[in-house]
Write a structure and sequence with these properties.
Order of helices and strands: HHHHHHHHHHHHHHH
Distance between the termini: 46 Å
Largest sheet: none
Oligomer: single chain
Number of helices: 15
Length: about 350
């Protein structure tokens, strides 16, 4: 099964690279409202995925994996995650892909994320009680109980998101539709992973960071580490596949390059390597703290949970984009005093 996880991770990396969804300039461009590729691809992935997954589960080929609506954790964690994503320019799932392409800021972000995972393991017992209330695993399906109306609403929801993606593309006036193909690819890949005959789980990334960090530091004799072992091990193999994908395809494209600073950063923050390293670490650190507070990240919460039309994931997505856009507005300013 390890080989299959690696292959799926490799495909995940290939899909994201096809629309440059793993690139710093693409993600930070979304934070600055200069590039809607991320929003378009996620909307398509969630929209198409919601329709496909509803029938897949309805036919008995997959099962639900809805994350609970832990209110403060989802809201505050989402804002922190969005802020970290804006500053770092990557999310937990795209970091290894870009590292495979030679991005050194992605490597720094991974280190920051691992440290964030270690810190979260240490503070988790103290803050767990403050993350609630836990409103349960709420979704459209749990509210409707299945039936024709549920499927009709799911189709309407899915088509509305796909329509929103096309509307955003019209605003950008871009001719490329790589975001569309990538979104559909992510939806199909998620549905494959959801299959009970395959892995019967969601695609995720952020649990691997505390899992690796706790292994490296020996923080293994606690309940939180125990909860990360199974998903963290799976995600580590999956992300290894995605990193290999970044390496292989960048070599094929002949654009593999060791690089720390990208144009999206330098145009407002300058070319100081020290500054970029510091902020990449900070971004990775708070990114993972937010992900762990909310119980997931872009792939495991926003996309996989959004496909299930889960209240927790839709709310998390809203807070992530709020944190992303607010941070983008105030962080990326020419002449900014942020050092």
């Amino acid at each position: 099964m390890t080989i299959l996880i690696l292959i799926l991770g490799f495909l995940f990396g290939a899909i994201l690279q096809s629309a440059k969804l793993n690139k710093y300039n693409t993600i930070s461009g979304m934070a600055r409202l200069e590039d809607f590729t991320v929003a378009k691809a996620i909307a398509v992935a969630v929209g198409v995925g919601a329709i496909l997954l509803s029938f897949e589960i309805g036919l008995g080929y997959a099962s639900w994996h809805v994350k609970p609506l832990i209110l403060v954790g989802i809201g505050f964690g989402g804002l922190i995650f969005g802020a970290g994503m804006a500053i770092l320019g990557y999310c937990p799932g795209t970091l290894p892909i870009s590292l495979g392409e030679g991005s050194m800021d992605a490597l720094v972000g991974i280190v920051g994320g691992i440290v964030g995972g270690i810190v979260y393991t240490l503070i988790q017992p103290s803050i767990q009680g403050m993350l609630g209330p836990d409103l349960g695993k709420l979704s459209l399906q749990s509210a409707m109980g299945g039936g024709p109306v549920y499927y009709i609403l799911t189709i309407v929801f899915g088509l509305a998101l796909v329509g929103t993606a096309f509307w955003l593309n019209k605003l950008e006036n871009k001719k490329s539709y790589n975001w569309l193909y990538a979104g559909i690819g992510l939806a199909i890949l998620n549905c494959i992973v959801f299959l009970t005959t395959v892995f019967d789980r969601v695609i995720g990334a952020s649990t691997s960071y505390p899992y690796v960090g706790d292994l490296l530091t020996g923080l293994t004799q606690n309940d939180y580490f125990a909860s990360t072992v199974k998903p963290g091990h799976w995600e580590l193999i999956f992300l290894t596949g995605s990193m290999l994908s970044g390496l292989v395809f960048s070599l094929i494209r002949k654009d593999f390059k060791i690089q720390l600073i990208y144009s999206g950063w330098s145009k407002t923050e300058g070319n100081s390597k020290t500054k970029r390293i510091i902020w990449a670490f900070v971004g990775g650190f708070i990114l993972l703290i937010g992900a762990r507070m909310a119980g997931g990240c872009t792939s495991g919460h926003v996309i996989s949970g959004g496909m299930q039309i889960a209240a927790s994931s839709l709310l998390f997505g809203a807070f992530v984009f709020a944190g992303l856009l607010l941070t983008g507005k105030f962080f990326y300013r020419k002449g900014s005093s942020i050092q």
